[in-house]
Design a protein that fits this description.
The complex is a heterodimer of chains A (317) and B (249). By secondary structure, chain A is of the alpha/beta class. Chain A folds into two domains: 164 residues, HUPs (Rossmann fold); 116 residues, TPP-binding domain (Rossmann fold). Chain A contains eight helices and 16 strands. In chain A, the strands form three sheets. Chain A has a seven-stranded parallel β-sheet, with helices on both faces. A five-stranded parallel β-sheet of chain A has the order 13-12-14-15-16. The longest helix of chain A has 14 residues. The N and C termini of chain B lie far apart (55 Å). With 249 residues, chain B is α/β, with parallel strands linked by helices. Chain B contains six helices and 13 strands. Classes of the chains: A alpha/beta (317), B alpha/beta (249). At the A-B interface, helix 3, helix 4, strand 5, strand 7 and strand 8 of A face helix 3, helix 4, strand 7, strand 8 and strand 9 of B.
Amino acid sequence: MSILLIAEHNNKEVKPFTLNAINAASQINEDVHVLVLGSNSDGVAKSISQIPNTKKVIHVNNPIYENYLAENYTSVIYKLSENYSHIVCSANTFGKNLMPRVAALLDVSQVSDITKVISEDTFLRPIYAGNAFATVKSNDKIKCVTIRPTSFDPAPTSGGSAEIQNSEAGEATEISKFIKKEEIKSDRPELGTARVVVSGGRGMQSGENFKLITAVADKLNAAIGASRAAVDAGYITNDHQVGQTGKVVVPDLYIAVGISGAIQHLAGMKESKVIVAINKDGEAPIFSIADYGLEADLFDALPKFLDELNKLNTIQK
Amino acid sequence: MKILVAVKRVIDYNVQIRVKEDGSGVITDNVKMSTNPPDDNAMEEAVKIKELGKASEVVAVSVGDEKAQETVRKALAVGADRGILVKADGIIEPLAVSKILQKVVEKEKPDLVFMGKQAIDDDCNQTGQMLAALLNWPQATFASKIEVKDKSLEVTREIDEGLETIEVNVPAIVTCDLRLNEPRYASLPNIMKAKKKPIEQINASDLGVDTKPRIEQIKVEEPPKRKAGIKVASVEELVQKLKNEAKVI
C-alpha cells in the first residue's frame, strides 16, 4: 500500500493545492510518494522532499515537461502505477484534466473530488454541487482519487528530508501542443480561494452598478462573484458566476447583494463560514441560510456599508 | 468534418435536490429533467462550426434510459442532423460511458467529439478525458474558445490561473466550459422538424460494454442543514456583528 501523488508546479514552485492533496493522501496511507514531472525542476523536487508527509520524491526532469500536457504526463504515471495502491492529485483544473486519462488507461473507475477520507477505499464526495453527499467505496485494484483542496488543510512545508529518486521520461506526445498561458494578473484574490467574496445578483439592475460591489470588495480584499441571473442579464462576465454551473466557493465571509437565492446559486456558496444577505425582499430565500440578513435597498446599504468599513481601524486581509 | 456531440439528461439545474429517505440516492421521479448545461454549449459550438461551413454533419449521442430520447430530440431541434441513443439503465459510470462512446466513435468515425466539461448530477468531470485516453486522441478540456484550423484545433482552456491555449491534432476530444458560447433556444418550427429527424437506438449490452458500476454507492445523505441566522436592523449593526461577533472582517 503506497500512494503516488502527482504534484502540480511551475518548475519553480509547488502549487499550493498540491500541499492540500499531500495531506489528504497521507490520511489514506502514510507512504506517500510524490511524482514531479518537470523541466529544470530540481528546486521543486527539493522543496517537496522537505514536506514531512512525503516519504519519497520521484523526479523526472526533461524538457518535454516544461509545460503541462495530460498526454505527456499519462505515460509516466501509467508505467509507475503498478507499484501503487492509489494515485492521487488535487481536483482543480490540473487534476481534473489529468486523472481521468490515467484512470481510463488503467481501466479504473475514478473517485472525483473527495471531501473526506473514511478509509483506504471509502470516501465522501459531494454530488449535485453539494446538494447531496455520497459515501462511495472503490473496488478497483488501483484507486484513482482526486481531492477537493479546500476540504483538507495544507501539509507543512518543512521538517522532512525524503529521498529524491530520478526517473526516466516517457515519450513526448505529438498530438497535442502547448501554445501559451495567460495568467490573469489581478490584485484581487481568485474567486475559488478568496477569504471574502462579495456577490451581486439581478438586484444590481445593471453592470454599471457593480461598481458598488467593486468598492466594497476592494476594501475587504475580496473576490467578486455573481449569480447566474446577473450573468445572464449581461451585468458581468460568467467567470464570476457562483453556483452549480459556475464556481463553488467556501470563503470565510460571503456577502450576497441583491441575490434572491435560487437553488443553483445556493449550491455554490452555502458552505461558506459566514453568509451575509442584503436584499430588499424580506421573503427572499437567501435569508433562510444567511447568518446575518439585512432587509434594505442595496443602493442605500452598499454605500453605507463602505462608510462603516472605512470607519474601522483595522480590516482583516 | 464530422462532429459527434455527447449530451446527458440530468435533473434540471433549478430543481431542489431531495435525497431519498433510505439513502439510496436522490429523488428523480416526477422531477424536471433537462440537458446538462455545458452539453448545450457543446452542441451550440458544433452547430456553429457547421454553419461556418467547416463541418458537414453533427450527430448527437446520449447514453441513458428510454427518456434520454428527449435530450437527443432537443439536440436535433437546435441543429444536430441525426441522433443516437445508447440505452442503458441504472448508474452508468463515466468509465462505462466512455467505453460506450468509444464504440460509437469506432462506428461513426467522427473527426471531433464535443461534450460538456462536467455533468451537474454526479459532478465527475471524467468522461471526455477517459474517452480521449481510450481512443489515444488529444484532449482539450474546459474549452472557452475553439478555432478550427486545417488539421488541428486551437483551443483556449479555462484553468485556475487564467487561460491556456493549446493546439490539438484532429481527431480530438473537446470538453466545453459554459463560457464557450451562448446556447440558442430551439424555435418552434425547428422543434417540429426535429421530430422527423432519425434517432438510432442501440442497446449498450449489444456493444459488448460491461456497464456494471465499479464504485459501490454506500449511502447518499443530505448536506448538513444550515440554520437561518438573524436579521440585523441597520448597516451599522451588520458591520459590528461581522467585526465583533463573527470576527471575519
